[in-house]
Specification:
mainly alpha, 58% helix, globular
């Protein structure tokens, strides 16, 4: 299945940290990652680093919980059962 690219570089403003093209690529990669139900094989180091820069601690949540780390999932489930 071909990935749908919805974001174009013209929609982004380049900064000293990222070009408009890099931002569009990340946006498309993020949407494809979500649409594919967060596959671990697509969660590479560079992608993680960009998520971390954009969303901070949410990247750690994605890495640990969404990637089905059993110890983190067990702790999260146990914590949610006490509320």
């Amino acid at each position: 299945m071909a990935a749908a690219h919805h974001f174009q570089s013209e929609s982004f403003t380049a900064t000293k940290w990222s070009t408009a093209e890099e931002k569009a690529k990340f946006a498309n990669d993020l949407m494809a990652f979500i649409a594919a139900d967060f596959p671990e094989k697509k969660f590479k180091k560079g992608f993680y680093e960009r998520i971390s820069m954009c969303f901070g601690m949410i990247a750690h949540y994605v890495e640990c919980v969404i990637m089905r780390s059993t110890s983190v999932n067990a702790a999260w489930i146990q914590g949610s059962n006490t509320r």
